[in-house]
Amino acid sequence: MKNKQRDMQLQSYTCNFVNAQKDIPVGTNHLQTILAKKQQEKILNLFHADENLWNNWHWQINNRICSVQTLSQILPLSDNEIQCIKKVESYFRWAISPYYISLINPQNPQDPIRKIAIPDIKELSADGEFDPMDEAGHNPTGAITRRYPDRLIINVTNACGSYCRHCQRRRNIGTQDFVTGQDKIAQSIQYIKEHTEIRDVLITGGDPLTLEDDVLIKIVAEIRSIPHVEIIRIGTRMPVVVPQRITEDLVNGLKQYHPIYINMQFNHPQEITPQSTYACNLLADNGFVLGNQMVLLNGINDDKYVVQLLNQNLLKIRIRPYYIFHAKNIIGTTHFRTSIQTGLDIMKHLRGNTSGLAIPTYVLNAPRGAGKIPLNYRNYQELSDGNILFETWEGKKIILSKDGSLVNE
Ligand code: SF4
Q1: What pLDDT digit, counting tens, does each position of 328-342 carry?
Q2: Which one, 176, 197, 290, 388, has the greatest CB density within 10 A?
Q3: CB–CB of 153/204 below 8 Å?
Q4: What region, left, alpha or beta, does residue 48 occupy, with left being phi > 0 and alpha being psi -120 to 50 degrees?
C-alpha cells in the first residue's frame, strides 16, 4: 500500500510539466516543421533559390538577411517595428541566416527565436558595459584570452551564422566579418607551445565554424601537435543557426584530432529541429563530445519547464547540458537579464524532477574577468549542535550528522 501511494505521488509530480509542455513550442513537432517548411519556400522564392542551395552552408551565410526591407517580406512587421530596427541597426549589426529565420512562427509575436534574432528598441538602453569581463585586459598575446591556470581561449574570427541579440561577446562583432590574421594565430599557437601548463584550448569567436574547412582544420591540427595540449574545445552556435555547416567533409577533417569537445548554445526547445538533430547526430556518431551552454534569457527561457524540456530534448540528441550562464551586464543586451533568484528557482526545480544528466551548472561570470562563480541554491543549514539540517528535492527536512548519517526526519 505504501509503495502504491508513493508511486502515485511521484506520478503526480510530472503532471504540471506534462501540462506546461502543451504551450512550449518545440522545433520537431508536426505543426512547427510545417510552418518552417512554408517559410523556407517563401524565402527560396524571394531569393530565386532551390533546396540544394538551402542545404549549402555558404549559401546560408552569403544570404543572411540584414535589411529590414527583405525581413518585412518574410515576416509581418508593423511600421513601428520597421522604424525601431532601423534605429537599432545604426548602432548594432544584425544578420539572420535564412534557415534560422524560417524557424520563426510569423503568427507569434512572442516567438522565442524572433526575440533572439530580431533587433529590439530596448537595445538602445544606456545600461550595461562594453567589456564587463575585461577581456582586453586578459589578452597576453595574439588572439588569446586567458583567465585560468591551465586553459585558454583563442578567438579565430568575429563572424557568426546569425547575430544573436543577447550576444555576450557583442563587442567582438563589430560592423564587418573578419577572420583573425595568421600572424595573431601564429602568436597564439607559439604562446601555447611555450606554456606547458596549458592542457585545454577553446577555439571560439564569433563562431569558428564560419571558417572554411581548411583554415579551421589547420588551426586544430597545429594545436593538436602540441604535446601538452590534452583536449581541444570548439564553441559554436552553427548547429543551431546554420546546421548545414556540419558536413561530412568538416567532420572527417576534424575527427583526426580527437578528443574534441563541441559546446553549443541551444537556448530554447524550438531551436532543436530535424536539421539540427541531423547535424548533432553526425557529430556524435563521429566521436565529438557535445555540450550545451544555455544563456538564461528574460522572456525566452526564464521558465523552469522550458529549461527542463530543452535539457531533456538535448539529451535525446546526445548533447549534455553543461552550463546555464547568467547573462552578463553587456550594453545593448541588459533587457535579457534576469535576477539570480530566477536561475536558482529553475535549478531547484530541475533537481529531482529530471535526470541528473539534464542538470547543468548555473554560473555567473564574475565582472572584471574574475572567473566563473557557480550559483547554488542553499539546501542546508548548520545547526548549533553540530548537525546539519537538509532540505530534500521534495522540500522535506532531514537532519544529518556531519558524516551524513541520519539523525532525525
Ligand atoms: S553566435 Fe555566439 S558570438 Fe555569435 S552573435 Fe550569437 S552569441 Fe554572439
Answers
A1: 999 999 999 999 999
A2: 290
A3: yes
A4: left
* Type of residue found at 125: S
Superfamily per CATH, domain 135-371: Aldolase class I (3.20.20.70)
CB of 160 sitting under 6 A from ligand 1? yes
Question: What cell does 268 get?
Answer: 530554447
Distance CA 309, CA 392 (A): 22
Ligand 1 atom closest to residue 204's alpha carbon, by position in its atom list = 3
How far apart, in whole angstroms, are the C-alpha atoms of residue 386 and residue 384? Answer: 5
- Verify whether ligand 1 is closer than 6 Å to residue 245 (CB atom): no
- Tell me which residue has cell 594545436: 223
Partner residues linked to 324 by β-bridges:
294, 362
Contact 143/136 with Cβ under 8 angstroms? no
C-alpha to C-alpha distance for 98 and 251, rounded to whole angstroms: 23
pLDDT of residue 1: 61
pLDDT value at 63 more than 80: yes
pLDDT band of residue 208 (cuts 50, 70, 90) is very high
* Size of the chain in residues: 409
Confidence (pTM): 0.96
Supply the pLDDT for residue 134.
79
Model confidence over 295-349: pLDDT tens digits?
999 999 999 999 999 999 999 999 999 999 999 999 999 999 999 999 999 999 9
CA of 219 to the centre of ligand 1 (A): 20
- Tally Cβ neighbours within 10 Å of residue 88: 21
Cα 179 to averaged position of ligand 1 atoms, centre (Å): 15
Candidate of 202, 237, 323 to mutate for ligand 1, largest count of ligand atoms within 8 Å of Cβ? 237
Domain locations in the chain?
24-111, 135-371, 378-409
- Residue 249's CB: how many other CB atoms inside 10 A? 10
Rg (CA), the chain: 23
Sheet containing 380-382: order of strands: 380-382, 388-391, 397-400, 406-408
